[in-house]
Amino acid sequence: MTYCVGIEVDEGLVFAADTRTNASLDDVRVYRKLHVFEYPGQAVFALMSAGNLATTQLALARIQRDVDDAAERNLRNFRHLFEVAEYVGQILVSSQVDTSGRPEFEGVSTQATLILGGQIAGERPGMYMIYPLGNAIASSPETPYLQVGESKYGKPILDRIIRADMRLEDAARTALVSLDSTIRSNLSVGMPIDLALIRRDDLRVTERMRLDADTPLYADIHANWSRKLAEAVHTLPRFPWELPDDPSG
Question: Quick check: 47 and 92 in contact, CB under 8 A?
């Protein structure tokens, strides 16, 4: 019941996530899946989550506690983003173990998967997928986006459009179209959508917004994308039987 996508381009990072956590006919709930940790001038991180909600809440609480307590290992003390990914992966594993030990979760999967992205002063922005076992993989110019949750409906648009040299705002629009396509095809992914942009070397969240179905920007993107897709189909090459007879005979 989740779809989150992170995109890395030369200009920076894009994060977009739905907020639906339950989608039965009479019980629809929302919960923020995009979380930001900002330390202006020093570092900025965004974390998106998919999987067991109790696990992700516990992991986020522990990450914030370490910052508040100025623990030896906390988000403000790392020099490299890969070290942050290792740290968050270790917290994720311990949170899964602790959650699985609670009686109410007996027989329930407590696994979660995270997308971590951001920038630390002195190095380039980056993005990692952190798996339930705590291991992580990084995005790359060949794979400039990462997805968690119901990824299959929104993946084709990313494959066709996302390139490392595209504008950050174009990457953000593509992320919204990817989410729109998923929402249209899967009831378990739903509005509102959280969107955040981190421009390279800003060391803060450059832009952040929440979009609902009636937000004018989202409504325009939704309507324009649907209309232009239909128009594109009409401009595709004709089948042989549609072509007029050759007058030269």
Answer: no
